[in-house]
Structures are given as C-alpha cells and as structure tokens.
Write a structure and sequence with these properties.
Distance between the termini: 42 Å
Radius of gyration: 25 Å
Helix content: 40-55%
Strand order of the largest sheet: 1-2-3
Order of helices and strands: EEEHHHHHH
Shape: elongated
Largest sheet: 3 strands, antiparallel
Number of domains: 2
Structural class: alpha+beta
Length: about 190
Amino acid sequence: MKSTYRILFLIRKRDLNKDGLANIMVRITISRETAEFSSKMFIDPEMWSPLGKAIGRTKEAKNINDALDRIKIALDNQYKTILEKDGYVTPDKLRNTYLGKEIRKTTVLSLYDTKVEQKWNLVGKTIRDTTLSKYLATRKRVGNFMVHKYKKEICLFLYSEYYDNVEDRFSFVKFYFSFIFLLLQRLQLY
C-alpha cells in the first residue's frame, strides 16, 4: 500500500501569546497518522495565509517563509533517510528525528560487534586471523556473562557499575571492560 506524506504549516488563532502573535505549528501526516510540533516561530494572525505561508513582502514575512522552507526541506531529507534505513516512516518517528529526540538503541555487544567488523576487514592486512578469533571469543564470553548475570543483554551496560567490583584475579575481564569503556568514550556514549 502506498503511503501518503504531507507537511502542513498552521497557526492556532485561539492560542495567541501575550503579544497577540500565533505560534506556527508543523503538522506531519503519513497515511492518515499525524504528529505536530512547534516551529518556535510566531506571526501576527493577520499576516498568515491559509496556504501555510506568511503574506506580504516584508522582511519578516520573507524570513518566516524561508525558515518554513528550510524546515520542509530538512523534514523531506529526514523522511528519505528513515525510509531507506528502516523501510517505513511514522509521523512520530520523523518528528522525533527532526527534533533530535531519536533514541539510539546501542548495546555494548553491538558496539563490540562494530569493533569486530572493523578487525575483520583488517585480517591479512595488519592483523592475523588468530587475533580476530580472540576478538570473537571475547565477544562470546562477554555476551554469555551478560546473559548469565542479568538474564538478558542490557541496552547500555555502564562500565563503572561492574569494573569497580571486579577482583584482581579477573584481570582479563578488567582489560576487556576497559577496552569497551574506551570504545564507548570514543563514540561519545559515556
């Protein structure tokens, strides 16, 4: 089924601020589902066209229309990106991505899988296949530990929660958790 995608700019004449200006809202409609958010711009209701633009040739009207065009272009680009990545788009997902509220679902194991994939590409060039097998074994051990300890993979296993409780006899665990901690720091997740 083909989905319809539309962006509409509107104002609420009943909800004016203390200066008598109306907030310009952005409504995203995809397949009859809608999501709204504020553009954080205000306009005099007399300057607003029902077509979703500011009326007039004043500097203020041109600035508002340019800003609304930039919002539409950014939403269109986000729509295409999400559609290519996930195969479907919802209005809430598009709104949250545009507003920067997208939730990154990253696990320690997925970060480690990324590292293993990078090492996989280096086999034969700068590292040996035995080194890769050590990375894979470590990934398996950490995964098994998380499942054993927490009965599931955790969305974000904070390094400091576990590292402080590790005894010295498990120095290899400290080493691998320090590696994961560095990886989290480089990806700016911790």
